[in-house]
Amino acid sequence: MDWKTGxxxxxxxxxxxxxxxxxxxxxxxxxxxxxxxxxGSLEYEDSFRxxxxxxxxxxxxxxxxEGYFATLEDAEIFNEEIKAMLVQQIWAPNSPVWFNIGHxxxxxxxxxxxxxxxxxxxxxxxxxxxxxxxxxxxxxxSTYEYPQCSACFLTEVGDSMEDILDHxxxxxxIFASGSGVGINLSTLRSSKxxxxxxxxxxxxxxxxxxxxxxxxxxxxxxxxxxxxRMVLMFSDHPDIFEFINTKNRQEDIAKVxxxxxxxHVELKQIAETKLVAGTPAEKAAARVILSLPLATRNSFDxxxxxxxxxxxxxxxxxxxxxxxxxxxxxxxPITAIPTRAGSRIRPTxxxxxxxxxxxxxxxxxxxxxxxxxxxxxx
Length: 378
Description:
The chain has a domain at 23-116. The chain is 39% helix and 12% strand. The chain is built from eleven helices and eleven strands. Residues 328-372 have low confidence and may be disordered.
C-alpha cells in the first residue's frame, strides 16, 4: 500500500507463508518471486511451499540425472536440507533462480503441468551440453526447460555498428529472464577517433546511453525491478573523463529540473492567492502565470523518482567502474586494448590519461568529494 495515498500497490490474497518471517520479507518474496498473476490459473502460486518445491525439487532432479547422488537416500536428504535452509532463511539463491527454476519440472511433484503452455512461446532458447572438448548447442522448446539461473553475464562488444546493434539484442534477452550484465566499453573507439570517410565516432558513452535506456524499459524477468548493468572502462581510454563524469552530469540535470518545477509550483500557488486578494496589477499577472502549462501541482516528493530517474535521465541502470589497467603508482602507461577477435589495437598518444588530472577527487552527486558516482577498481 502506498503510505502517502493509501492506494493498493500489490495484493495477493490467501497467501501461505512461514509464520516466523517478518512482514517485509513476506511482501518482497511474494511481490518479486511468486509466479503467476491471475488467481486460479495453472501457473498461479499462492504459497511459499510452491517456491521451496520448485527450487529444491528441481535441484534434486537435476542432481540425480547427472549422477551427483550415490543413493536415493542421499538425494532425499539433499532435498530436505535445501528446503530447511530456505524456510529458516539460512540460504537464498539469486533472483533468476527464484524467478525461473522449476516451472518446467513441477508436474513431477503434483503441480499443474505447464510444459504445453510454454512450448514455443517467448524468447528462443538454447542449451549447451557435453564434455569440455565436445560441447553441443541445440534449441530447446522453452526458456523454462533449461532456465536462465545465473545472476550476471559478462558480455563483450566489437567496434562495429553490427556488433553494437547485436549487443542491444544480447542485453535485452538476458534482462528478459531476470539476469544482469557486465560489459567493458573500452573496445569501442572514442568520440575523438574517426570513422572511415564519415567524420567521427559517437563514442562508447553515446551507445551505452541507448543500451541503458533499453535496460530500464525491460523489467528483469517480467518483474517489478529494473535491469542491472555493471559498466567498466579502462583508465587509458580517451573518453575516460566523460565516462567518470556522466552520472554526475545527470544528477545536475535532475537538480535543474526539480528546482525549476518547484519554483513553478510555488509561483502558481502564489498566483492563485493573488487572483482572489491581490491588486489589479497582481490579478493581471496571476492570470498570466496561471495560464502557463504545468504537468503537476505537486512539489517534488519521492514518488517523482520513477518519472525523473526512470523515464527522463540516462545511465540510471548501471554502476560505472574504472579499471586502473596497467597503472603503477601515479603513472599511467599506454596500454593496448584487446578486441573480441583477439587482435590488439595499437595505442596512440591520445589513449593516455594525464596522471595528475586522473587522480583528482571526483565529486559525488551531492557535490562533495566522498562516495563518487564512478567506482575506481584495480
